[in-house]
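Box S1 | Example of a co-folding query
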Amino acid sequence: MSQYKIGIVASEGIAIGKAYLFIKEDLEISNLKIEDNQVDGEIDKFKKAVEEYSEELNNTEVSTETQQEVINAHIGMLDDPFLLETVEEKIKNKINAEKALDDSIKEMVTMMQSLDDEYLRERATDYKDIGERLLYKLKGIKPKNLSDLPEDSIIVSKELTPTDTSLMNKDRVLGFAMDLGGKTAHTSIIAQTLGIPALVGMKDVSSSVKEGDFLILDCYEGKLYINPEENIIKEYKEKVEEIKQEKIRLEAIKFKEAITKDNHKVEIACNIGNIEDLKLGLSQGAEGVGLFRTEFLYMENDHFPTEEEQFEVYKEAAEMLDGKPLIIRTLDIGGDKSLSYFKFPEEENPFLGWRALRICFDMPEIFETQLKAILRASAFGKVRILLPMVISVEEIKRVKEILTKVKEKLKNENIEFDENIEVGIMVETPASVIIADDLIKYVDYFSIGTNDLTQYILAVDRGNDKISNLYNTYNPAVLRSIKQVIEASHKVGKWTGMCGGFAGDTKATKLLLGMGLDEFSAPAANIPKMKDIIINISMEDAKEFADNILNIETTSEIEEVIKKAL
Ligand code: PEP
Ligand code: MG
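Box S1 (continued) | Returned holo structure for phosphoenolpyruvate
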């Protein structure tokens, strides 16, 4: 029987191809004491390496914004005189260029890794990456490069850095399998954006696979087959063909409206973090944006983005949507999301701490700047405001007061905006579920954030591996909360959407439809399948299905019923 190795699915799909081992060898650093008359030569050698690498980066062809960001970050670090000065200083102390570079990078990496800030810690990887590239240049060795790959490669490695993926020839890569990494690692996000199947956290895949091995990467089940038997290859070739045919079929319906057989219409929107995600969403048939996670705009910057900087992005999105709704969530920072340019206080429980609206209330100028930018963009499309982490009516009233003040300012400045801009809240805390009947009186709509709602309802940290088996949105407590929220909005003639990951789970589409969900906001890739499901069922059937599930007492039984229905 064919054996397989298990990994965490970072990006869905199936790939059949040949292993391309991308293992970086440890470069030996020559450690030489140099003479006075060699100092200038070593400095020049280092400067030349920097110049060559900068030139290489500037000439790299990029196809996504994320790649451009990685490249820009590296160019920025190379331009920063700090690196050059540190290395020069060491060479002047009679250390050769290689050792001076290695010592300088190690110092920077140690310093950055000791910081609390997650974003800055990630920059340490960038420094390591730059150090390695410069070392290759100093040694005059051409590193193994993913730009020159055989056709149909599945890349197997310990870890791929963002630079590796940026310089990769995407037309030849069918998939990734990595020892390290998690679902939300930078490389995983790049794989999702590019639609490349990827398994991460495989522990020892890079030492279990040989160059040229025949691989099947099943990124639905989280399995990697190495040189499998004929019957497995045949089975997967059939699956790949089915997926291909299914893709062609879905291509034909992706721009249709999501209307059930008995004429019940829902909206299928996409979640975005930047303009590139929006382009992808629209190409897959999104009928709007149900969640713009604006914190990415803040996280990618080295300062709080100005009103103008934000306005430009929101306006561009509103215009691209051409009248379709754009739901912009106000800054949801804190918890596991930090900023390189702002020091958050140490907290025992950051997910229960100073995050989202709580920060915005304490830093009114930041909040008002964002609201002003959103309001200005509302003159260019159908823009809605979404507030994260709400737990009380007071919070909504407070936001409304601030909003009125900002609107007044805009009027005084004769700047156009949508006076009736709709305001909604994320329902992602137990408090907001319990008082949903009250909260809905003060807002225009709800959007359920199942990622946080699941963690808070179940008291299960969404990022903790040890208890990930308990983190399950199919738990009856979460499902009944969702139903309660939808009902609270319908009772007063308002609507409820969902922008948490559960909205894009195609196994849950029928259930959510039957519960009465009005809007689903999901990653672009899932949209065609969701529409296909909705178009081919009746609301009556979906309701009966949902009612049945809401009466079940255990998560496992619920999952069993869902599985059977597929
Ligand atoms: C959620 O909590 O479901 C959500 C959409 O917000 P985020 O994942 O950004 O916390
Ligand atoms: Mg959330």
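The pocket of magnesium ion (ligand 2) is lined by residues 388, 428, 449, 451-452 (CB under 6 Å). The two ends are 28 Å apart (CA to CA).
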